[in-house]
Specification:
about 75% helix, about 0% strand
Amino acid sequence: MRRLSLVPSLAAVALASGLFAQSFNSEAEARFNVGISHIREGRYDLAIDTIKQAIKSDPKNAFFWKGLGTAYAASRKWTEAIESYRKALELNPYYVDVRNDLGTALILSGKLDEGKREFIALFSDPTNPTPEMTARNLGQAYLEEKNYPEAVNWFRTAIARAKTYAEAYVGASDAFQGMGRLEDAIQTLEAGRREVPDEPGLNLALGEVYFKAGRFSEARQRLEAAASRDPTGATGRRAAELLRNFPK
């Protein structure tokens, strides 16, 4: 089952660093940016240590605390991630993007109800910059609980807010498959592919459901498309693996 993505969190931290650099202690900012680079390159322990050094120089910087939470989350240290995100919100209650990260960390730590409450409150917040992400995360939370109808509702809400949001189509397809509604899963992914035809994840998911439906020629086409558009990434590698084992 697909899990909630933390990638947008890192992008938001990096963007915030650039937008608000003028308010930072320059030495602390430099350390923080190095920490973000460590996260991008998978050196999570180094990222944690480096961002902590930035915080020591500038302890009231909400963006640094968000970055620390992201580093902890990337290394699956959920308790520490939750504490860091809450500290960021304590310092800047209007930094609503952090609440997406907090809700995600709560859910991945096993606190599903608490995480869903965070997401539901955030979705209703008019200052939320990414309501489609919040709706998608709620859909994923309900999907992991196997509450498939509610998952579909939230994934559809995400799609209504952003028609090119590929992950929401894939999530809705997963929920339909959980209910045994394979044709609805196919139609959902086909609708997503019409919006973003070159998205590798959609092509991979569509190839998989075509295969389940016995539509092997179409399945091969979609898997080949996914492999060619993401030759070195996880999606492309998964598609290539399925193609290697494809029935003759």
